[in-house]
Design a protein that fits this description.
This protein has about 350 residues and is of the alpha/beta class. The protein has eleven helices and twelve strands. It has a single domain, classed as TIM Barrel (Alpha-Beta Barrel). The chain is about 45% helix and about 15% strand. An eight-stranded parallel barrel has the order 1-2-3-5-8-9-10-12, surrounded by eight helices. It has a two-stranded antiparallel sheet with strand order 6-7. The protein starts with 5 loop residues before the first strand and ends in a 7-residue tail after the last helix. GO terms for molecular function: monooxygenase activity; oxidoreductase activity, acting on paired donors, with incorporation or reduction of molecular oxygen. Pfam families: Bac_luciferase (PF00296). Keywords: Monooxygenase, Oxidoreductase.
Length: about 350
């Protein structure tokens, strides 16, 4: 049976200045995002994620710890890292942390492995940036071995070998889903497909260009003799009852976020913001109907089955963020799930009709 389309939220715990101009305190931001998790869970969203940074302007450096706190305050929502910077982490510790999270949450844990968009963790943990790719390849190999085998014997180039080593605890019988964050490069897409791992595309530019990556992902899996995994999409997000209201509310906050976190993009003026939020732009900022249409359009060209919205950007108020999360759950999710279910059923019927009947002997 096909997996229903899933929608969730995620955050890096940004400490962008709030509405009064003062920096958001990390303890306040952590309280905020735990409330986002509770509201998302109660409203019916499927996934809650937190990502990892090691900078003064982010509150989350340990996703597993934050997700464990969320596990204690939620009941059904899946809990994932978005992402775990595997290149600068010990895969044994990462596996143990997320296996523990899985047990605490009754099987709701997931892990997204990535190399990270920023490199502050490398000098922090004493690693050589010149071995950036080597670290990720080596440690991903070990992480997957840890999931598949126990005890495990392994040797690589970036950490001490393991000889018949038991790694505990083990996750629930459902296992520990591991996704890959692909960086929008052919090599990262091929890696995910070849390994048969589900993959996230972080769409910040033209969404249409990712159609070729989705095709490459599925071809790479087929060439490796694997069944392609699922594709997820992550995007910046804000929804309000009306399109104009959403954009008027969100623009100053989003412009501040871009200026702080993507300085190379320069100042984001209102015309550029509106272009990014247009029907074929990468930014999800508008009314529920606009958000629904854009998710369905991307689904047509990518075939993805999960959408994660990055919420609370740019010091947006807690009230506005919570209202946006609730609209995503109550207005957007049911419509997207119904439309994708109908499309799947129609495609299945077409395939059945195209198969000629075999006459009875």
């Amino acid at each position: 049976m096909p997996t229903p389309f899933e929608i969730g939220i995620f955050t890096f715990g940004e400490l962008t200045r709030g509405g009064d101009g003062s920096p958001i305190a990390p303890e306040q931001r952590l309280r905020d995002l735990l409330e986002w998790a509770r509201v998302a869970d109660e409203a019916g969203l499927d996934v809650f994620g937190v990502g990892e940074h090691h900078r003064p302007d982010f509150a989350v450096s340990s996703p597993a710890v934050v997700l464990a706190a969320a596990a204690a305050q939620t009941h059904r929502i899946r809990l994932t890292s978005t992402v775990t910077v595997l290149s600068s982490a010990d895969p044994v510790r990462v596996f143990e942390d997320f296996a523990t999270l899985d047990l605490l949450s009754a099987g709701r844990a997931e892990l997204t492995a990535g190399r990270g968009a920023y490199v502050e963790s490398f000098p922090l943990f004493g690693q050589d940036l010149n071995r950036y790719d080597e670290y990720f390849e080596d440690r991903l190999d070990l992480l997957l071995r840890l999931r598949a085998e126990n005890p495990v014997t392994w040797s690589g180039t970036t950490r001490a070998p393991l000889q018949n080593a038991g790694v505990w605890p083990r996750p629930t019988s459902g296992g520990l889903p591991i996704w890959l964050a692909v960086g929008g490069t052919p090599a990262s897409v091929v890696r995910a497909g070849t390994l048969g791992l589900p993959a996230y595309f972080a769409i910040l530019g033209d969404p249409a260009r990712f159609a070729a990556f989705a095709d490459l992902y599925r071809r790479s899996a087929a060439d490796a003799g694997r069944v392609p995994g699922r594709i997820g999409v992550t995007s910046h997000f804000y929804v309000e009852a009306t399109s104009q209201g959403a954009r008027d509310t969100f623009y100053p906050h989003y412009s501040s976020y871009i200026g702080q976190n993507m300085p190379r993009a320069g100042h984001l003026d209102r015309d550029s913001f509106d272009a990014w939020a247009s029907p074929r732009g990468a930014l999800f900022a508008g009314s529920p109907a606009e958000i629904i249409d854009k998710i369905l359009w991307e689904h047509e060209i990518l075939g993805h089955t999960r959408f994660l919205a990055q919420v609370g950007l740019g010091g947006l108020s807690q009230a506005d963020t919570l209202r946006s999360i609730e609209l995503l759950a109550t207005e957007v999710l049911p419509a997207v799930r119904a439309a994708t279910a109908r499309a799947t059923a129609t495609a299945r019927d077409v395939r059945r009709q195209s198969v000629p009947e075999v006459p009875a002997l």
